[in-house]
Each structure stands twice: as structure tokens, then as C-alpha cells.
Amino acid sequence: MIRYLMSGARGTACLGPSLRAGMLLAGLSVLNCSSTSRDFAGQSAGAAGAASAGAPGSSGASSTAGSANGGAANSAGSANNAGANTGGAGNAAGSAGSAGTGGGSSAGAGGGSSAGAGGVGGANGVGGAAPAGCSGVGSVKFCEDWDKLPSGKPVGDYSVSSGVVVDNSKAFSGTQSLHFLKLPKPASGTPSINFTKQFPLASNDMHGRVMYFIAETPKTGSHWNFITSSNSGGTEWSIGGQGGVFELVCDPPDHGLDSKTPWPGGKWVCMQWEFKYPGNDNTTFVSKVDGVSVDKGEFTGANSSGEKWKAGTWGNLRFGWEVFGSSDVDVEFWLDDLAFGEQVIPCPAK
User: Fold this and answer.
1) Same-domain status, 60 and 205
2) Closest Cα partner for 321 from 179, 196, 205?
3) Which of 329, 283, 328, 336 is nearest to 307 (CA)?
4) Pick from 80, 108, 127: which residue ends a domain?
């Protein structure tokens, strides 16, 4: 407890190819592209469409075929299909509607438009967002969105102190969340939810994520904890705050990192972490907010101060409030979509 008495001393992202006036269709749509990349895709698909549809003169040769599918005879119909197929991925992600409005370059432009939409879908995949709740989290040790539980003190594979309930006062997904009831300042209580039955982990590599909302960020000079985990090496790793910013600690021997990242308040954020013990002192610590590592919050081996955090077999995981001094504000927060296990767990899409 000596470190906590001293903690007050620590500070703290075209138009498309040229349009032809419809000779056979009075209402040919004007195609617009919103980006250079889509313009390029449209030109490429247009070239493919033109190859299938033939010369523009040929496209107009058959009024019957033109009126049927907006293409030039059977070749233009192929261009229509080619346009849709060219944007196949986009078709799944968005519309390919303009792909069949005309033959030749119009089919190509339609393909370009669909391909652009597909690009957006791909970007979302790269971002790694998971559905809200417990869908898409993979194989985990624990996941809970609190929606299937009755209101009141929760019962499950964990222990819960007084001052922690399931209710519908605020939720990130669904209708309920885990509510840490308001503690009037100086907020000397220690409400918590503690997990032990899920430990030890075979890999000793703990990953997790939780959606978190605190009504107001404490700016007290006293250190306080939110996430903690103890291990057989005799240390406790914690993610908490001090002076309105993140404070990251391994204790003993009180290796504290004064981050410059502000502690988020008044909104839902996704907090992720990794605590890894590989059997030696090249341990890994990661703390992220909305997918971005907090200042000084990601290292393997020595941290930014040249210190190595000791660890052992992880024995528990605890969420709650514990201040070593006093808070300058009332403390009230909510947890939702909580999951942890032995692999990276993506944040849910907001």
C-alpha cells in the first residue's frame, strides 16, 4: 500500500467515363462516380463491357435487344451481366443497379460502381469490427451482454460485490448492461466483478474487450484502478487512471507508467487488453481504446521506462472501482459486451 500513498506524486482518417446520349433509350441514366478509384474501376470494367458488347454502332443495331435489357443485342446483354459480375463483390455489399442500364461503356460503369461498393465492404473487414453482443467473438473463456439475465444482482461464473446490478438504465447493445451504481465523492467504496473460474489459461496469454461508459472522468491526483489481474509471480497488473489520464501499473515494485492518453468519459468506448506471461520476463502488456493503443500502453519486454513487468500464471480478472485516496467526482459507470479468452477479441461495430 506504500505505492498508493505515493501515487499522488505521479502526474499523469467525376464523373465517370464520358457519357453517351442514348440514341435508343430516351431515359438513359446519367452515371456518376464519387472517387478516382471507382472511376478507374469503371474504365476497366467499361473496357471489358465494350469488348463483350462490341462497337457502339453495333449496340444500336437492334432496337428489340436494346429495349429488352438496355444492352446491344445479345452482346450487350452479356455486357450487362459482365458489369454485374465485375462488381460481384460490390453487389454483395451494395447495389449494382446501374450495371444494366445500357450496353458498352454503361455496363462497364455499372461494374465500376459496384466494385466501389465492394471496396467499402472490404475495408470494414480489415477494421476487424465484430457484431455487438457475443456474436463473432470466436472461442472465448467468457462472454456476456447481460440481456438474458434478470435485473438485479447478477449470478454467474463470477463473484459480484454490492453496488453492481444488471439493469436497463444504459446499454451499448440490446437493452441491458452491468451497472456500477453511483458512488458519491469521495467514492471510497470498492464495487467489483471478479472472475476466477476461467483461470488458469493454457497459454497464459489473456486477451479481452469490454464496452465501457463512465458518466464523468475523475481527475483526482489519487491513483485508481478499473481492470486488474493477479498472477503466481506475486504481481498485479492494472489499467486505471490518475489526473484524468491513464495510469498503467505493475505492483510490486510499483512500476507505474504515466500515460498522456485521456481517460474517456461520457461516451461508450471499447477497451481491449492483453496480459501475456511467456514463462520469462519478456512479458507483453497491451491497453487499447477503440482499437488504438494508449500512450505507453503496448510493449513486450522493457517498457518505455526500461522496466520489465514480472508476471506468472494468471489467476483472476477483476473490473471495478478502487481509489487509493479520494475521487473529485461522483463515480458511476456501465459495462457491456464483455469477453475475454486467449485470442484477440475485436471491438463490436459502433
Assistant:
1) no
2) 179
3) 283
4) 127
Name the domain count of the chain: 2
pTM for this prediction: 0.65
Residue of higher predicted confidence among 93 and 169:
169
Asked if 331 and 299 sit in the same domain, the reply is: yes
Cα-flanking dihedrals φ and ψ of residue 75, to 5°?
-60, -40
> Which residue shows C-alpha cell 493503443?
293
Name which residue leads in pLDDT, 46 or 286: 286
- Amino acid residing at 126: V
Last residue of a domain, one of 127, 145, 180: 127
Q: Which domain holds residue 335?
A: 131-341
Same domain, yes or no: 149 and 108: no
Q: How far is residue 285's CA from residue 259's CA, in Å, rounded to a whole number?
A: 14
Q: 158: which DSSP letter?
A: B
How high is the pLDDT of residue 131? 80
Whole-angstrom Cα distance, residue 68 to residue 231? 72
Beta-carbon contacts of residue 236 (< 8 Å; ≥ 6 apart): 228, 229, 230, 249, 250, 251
Regarding whether 109 and 87 lie in a shared domain, the answer is yes
Same domain, 136 and 122: no
Which cell is 279 given? 514463462
Q: Which of 132, 139, 131 is nearest to 344 (CA)?
A: 139
CATH code of the domain in which 297 resides: 2.60.120.200
pLDDT digits (tens, 9 = 90+) for 118-133: 333 333 333 457 788 8
More confident residue, 132 or 217: 217
8 A C-beta contact, residue 98 and residue 107: no
DSSP structure string for 59-125: HTT-HHHHHHHSSSHHHHHHHHHHHHHHTHHHHHHS--GGGGSSSTHHHHHHHHHHHHHHHHHHHHH
As given in the structure block, the three cell numbers for residue 88 are 460481384
Question: Going by C-beta distance under 8 Å and a sequence separation of 6 or more, which residues neighbour residue 106?
Answer: 20, 28, 31, 49, 70, 83, 98
